[in-house]
Amino acid sequence: MILNPTIKIKTERLILQPVEDSYIDDILEHFTNEVTRYMPFNPQGNRKDIISFVNESKRTLLQNTDLVMVALDSKRDFMGCCGIHNITEESIELGLWLKKNAQGKGLGTEIITALIEFLENNFTFKYILYPVDEENIASKKIPEKLGFIPTIKYTKYKNSTTDLNIIEYRKYY
Questions:
Q1: Residues 135-139: what's their mean pLDDT?
Q2: For residues 167 and 143, is the Cβ–Cβ distance under 8 A?
Q3: CA 113, CA 71: separation in Å to the nearest integer?
Q4: Backbone phi, then psi, for 68, in 5-degree steps?
Q5: Which residues are paired to 130 by β-bridges?
Q6: What mean pLDDT is predicted for residues 75-87?
Q7: Mind spelling out the 3-state secondary structure of the chain?
Q8: By the 8 A CB rule, do 99 and 79 touch?
Q9: Helix 137-145 × helix 107-122 angle, to 10°
Q10: Average pLDDT of 27-41?
Q11: What's the number of CA atoms in the CB half-sphere (13 Å) around residue 131?
């Protein structure tokens, strides 16, 4: 499948669509240290960083290697971002973050379920991987509910005082 900026994935409560410039301020506001506690990112509140992220997301979409999307509710309010990354015939990686007040409502599972269905219907691959910090109990529930199995553990650098202990969950086909 060739990815394009008009892709939309609808779920029961959300619309997922490729990230675009109009969401820079939402991302800047909600991509906080608290939200990224278990992620290898250290937000600095720098608008230029978010602009670079959006531009890179557009570039990799056109290269057909990544699909970074915003999640919007029925009122088109920003809920967070999700992504399909490193698309190859071997594997595809999924990722997700939700703004603080959107967490704990089942939206993460809803998003990942929709992304898996999209991949199964449009791509051929051997497995999907979903990396999660082992201390992120809520996020670990998503792949565990959806039939992924923990496969590899590794350490990932976050900053000078913190390393993440990642469990890479995989779903094989």
A1: 96
A2: no
A3: 13
A4: -95, 130
A5: 169
A6: 98
A7: CCCCCCCCEECCCCEEEECCHHHHHHHHHHCCCCCCCCCCCCCCCCHHHHHHHHHHHHHHHHCCCCEEEEEECCCCCEEEEEEEECCCCCEEEEEEEECHHHCCCCHHHHHHHHHHHHHHHHCCCCEEEEEEECCCHHHHHHHHHCCCEEEEEEEEEEECCEEEEEEEEEEEC
A8: yes
A9: 40
A10: 94
A11: 18
Locate tokens 């929709």: which residue?
114
Write down the pTM of the prediction: 0.96
In the numeric block, which tokens belong to residue 149? 């199995």
- Pick the closest to residue 132 from 106, 159, 156, 100 (CA basis): 156
pLDDT per residue as tens digits for the range 143-152: 999 999 999 9
Closest by CA position to 115, among listed 132, 131, 95, 134: 95
Q: What pLDDT band is residue 42 in, cutting at 50, 70 and 90?
A: confident
Answer for the pair 16, 8: CB distance below 8 angstroms, yes or no: yes
Phi, psi dihedral angles at 54 (to 5 degrees): -65, -45
| Residue 58 amino acid letter | K
Q: How far is CA 63 from CA 19, 129, 144, in A?
A: 15, 20, 31
Give the distance, in angstroms, between the CA of residue 154 and the centroid of all CA atoms in the same chain.
19
| CA–CA distance, 133 with 168 (Å, rounded to integer) | 9
